[in-house]
Specification:
This protein has 234 residues and is α+β, with helices and mostly antiparallel strands. It has five helices and eight strands; from the N terminus they run H-E-E-E-H-H-E-E-H-H-E-E-E. Helices cover 33% and strands 18% of the residues. The longest helix has 19 residues. It is elongated.
């Protein structure tokens, strides 16, 4: 096929077989570099024995209780930096309704644990999952948006226990103020026969947007949570 050159030729190069081989080698090296997997942390190998905890949760969305087992691996054993971190998670129940996605979730979580690095982000990711039905309330008025979110609550509790997360609740002075507010409310309404639930909060309390607990009441014209101390008045 003939090609008509419309413009003036200003220069040219002759591509040799050596140039073709060099270009092919550079292309191959570039493709290999793109295909490299970036490992965020050294994968953890499973020891013969692991220590862990099993948590029981009973929810309105399942007929039977769920048993969540989180096993930990001991890092830097025998040194001042010794600590525990989750290695694997198992969830067991007589209820087979949610079996498939629970198995899939535990496998993905366990794989994330073994990758190393920061795993605390899983707590917020799980707790932010909402069911279309609107979730449910646990005993004591704690709102849970979904069964997945409750698994996240259990993981958070476990991370607190082994020291990977630090609790950021009210300090000593805030807790004292909360206790005073609760005592003031109960004393004020004792004469009218007002009662509290099992957690010590008024049965008519509103849901606190900060701690998701039915513990917010109006005191001195301001909505105040008797659980975490959050107040609309600052």
């Amino acid at each position: 096929m003939a090609i008509k050159i419309e413009k003036k030729i200003t220069g040219y190069n002759v591509i040799t077989e050596e140039d073709k081989v060099k270009a092919a080698a550079e292309q191959k090296a570039h493709e290999q570099k793109l295909a490299e997997i970036v490992q965020l942390g050294e994968p953890l190998s499973r020891p013969e024995m692991l220590v862990g905890n099993t948590y029981k949760i009973k929810t309105p969305v399942t007929e039977h209780a769920l048993y969540i087992t989180i096993n930990d691996v001991i890092m830097n054993e025998g040194t001042p930096q010794e600590h525990r971190r989750p290695f694997e998670i198992f969830i067991n129940s007589k209820n087979m309704e949610h079996f498939q996605w629970i198995v899939a979730l535990t496998r993905v979580m366990s794989a994330t644990f073994r990758k190393g690095g920061d795993i605390t982000f899983l707590v917020e990711e799980l707790k932010s999952v909402f069911e279309p039905s609107g979730g449910y309330f646990k005993k004591g008025g704690k709102y849970i948006p979904s069964l997945v979110a409750e698994i996240g609550e259990v993981l958070e509790q476990h991370l607190y226990q082994i020291g990977m997360l630090k609790k950021t609740g009210p300090d000593e002075h805030q807790q004292k103020l909360i206790n005073e507010k609760r005592a003031e409310y109960l004393e004020k309404h004792a004469a009218s026969g007002a009662k509290t639930n099992a957690e010590g909060f008024p049965p008519g309390a509103q849901l606190c947007s900060k701690c998701n607990t039915k513990a917010a009441i109006v005191m001195d014209g301001c909505l105040t949570c008797l659980n975490c101390g959050d107040s609309k008045c600052g």
